[in-house]
Amino acid sequence: MALGLLLDIDGVMVTSWKALPGAVEAVADLAEQGYPRMFLTNTTSRSRGEIAQALNDCGFEVAADEILTAAKLTAEYLTANHPGKRAWVLNEGPIAEDMTGVELIDEPSRAQVVVLGGAGPVFDHRALSQVLELMVAGVPVVAMHRSMTWSTADGLSIDTGVYLEGLEKAAGRKIKAIGKPSPLGFRAAVDMMQLEPTQVVMVGDDMHNDVLGAQAAALVGVLVRTGKFREEALRALQRDEFGPVPDHIVDSIADVPALMQKLSDR
């Protein structure tokens, strides 16, 4: 069976931009096996070019055009659904080069659409209050993703999804999220590999955003026990006999080459 590979980056290949044990060798092995691949990430602290450079510095061989970021997906969404609108982007990190086709502004008062990127110090009381005011006034708000946490060398940090729920309740309006676990990113990556969703294996450390999100979009899900993975969360999921569970669970990306070979032989 012909298969393609979709890899999350943070928590699967690296943590705090340092390669996880066996990751460089596993990615090289998978490349040698010839699987079509893409890297799908909700990371918004760096552009695609910067992510590729950081991965190459860690020993991986990855090109920028193999990386699909939440920022790139969001730019495509804005171009299609809010063409020509001035966008105020609240984000921790320089991602302008991935937001081509979108007019970016610094003044919230001139915003015709608000974009929420990755959380960080810029998500302060004043900025979030301005977002709420604009939401109440009817200005569309789009989030690059709905991730609740991300993994760092110092432990878990809260992410944009934590703030989205409060803003939605306060404004009485929903916020459109573009990156994982939205099917938009999974479908875009599958299309770029020219495969069917059932032929693509998604590897991630986030049980809901990466793995179950991919499975809901008809991809094959593989959960790794690295990054933000927590055993108790998996056990809680498995106790629900009616809920979805990951298709496959492995200790780390180092186990993925053997799993891909096994799946290919079916």
Any descriptors?
alpha/beta, globular, 6-stranded parallel β-sheet, 266 residues, 9 helices, 5-stranded parallel β-sheet, 20% strand
Can you tell me about this structure?
This protein is an alpha/beta fold and 266 residues long. 36% of the residues lie in helices and 20% in strands. It contains 9 helices and 15 strands. It has helices spanning 23-33, 48-58, 70-81, 125-136, 160-171, 183-192, 207-216, 231-239, 256-264; strands spanning 4-7, 14-15, 18-19, 37-41, 67-69, 86-90, 103-105, 113-116, 141-143, 149-152, 155-158, 176-177, 200-204, 220-224, 248-250. It has a 6-stranded parallel sheet with strand order 5-4-1-13-14-15, sandwiched between helices. The protein has a 5-stranded parallel sheet with strand order 7-6-8-9-12, covered by helices on one side. A two-stranded antiparallel sheet has the order 2-3. Helix 8 links the parallel strand 14 and strand 15 (248-250). Helix 4 (125-136) crosses helix 5. The relative contact order is 0.17. The model has no long low-confidence stretch (mean pLDDT 93).
